[in-house]
Amino acid sequence: MDYVLYHNLDRMGYDALSVDLLSFYTNKRTKVPVGARVWFIAGEGRPRTFMLRGVMLVKSEHPSDNPDFERVIAGKEGRLFDTMPVLNEEPWFDGLKREQGNFGFGFQPIYDPAALIGLRALAKKRSLV
Fold first, then answer.
1. Sign, CA torsion 102/107/110/114
2. Among candidates 95, 98, 106, which has minimal Cα distance to 41?
């Protein structure tokens, strides 16, 4: 199963490039299977520019040490992009945004097959998957 994790600069108070670990905070109560793939998408600016920060395979999920978030989803394999590909113009991206409620639902599974194909193609182009 693939999931999306969205990083909102306004909510987090720091940009996605500041994230340098394959470990992410969320308030979403969920059981994420070990080995699930998580796509880390960032949104910045007005109008929003959406970018792919990275992808990881889940190693664990556990309570957070950050009082603002309930859970931590930690990765074991993956990569973070230093130059984040912009997603806004990808032909499949509007479908992903709709599915994810403009990323307002928090950590969510991805069901849209076109989005999964598109994300994997971006990662493969950069030798990530």
1. positive
2. 106
Q: How far is it, in rounded angstroms, from Cα 57 to Cα 77?
A: 5
d(CA 52, CA 87): 7
DSSP bridge partners of 73: 24, 61
By residue count, the chain amounts to 129
% of the chain surpassing 70 pLDDT? 86
Q: Report pLDDT digits (tens) over 66-101.
A: 888 888 888 988 888 888 899 999 999 999 999 999
Enumerate the H helices of 1-129 as residue ranges.
Answer: 9-12, 93-99, 113-125
The domain limits of the chain are: 2-124
The first and second tokens of residue 96, run together, are: 């992903």
Q: Classify residue 7 as exposed, middle or buried by CB count within 10 Å of its CB (0-12, 13-18, 19+).
A: buried
The pTM of the full predicted model, rounded to 2 decimals, is 0.86
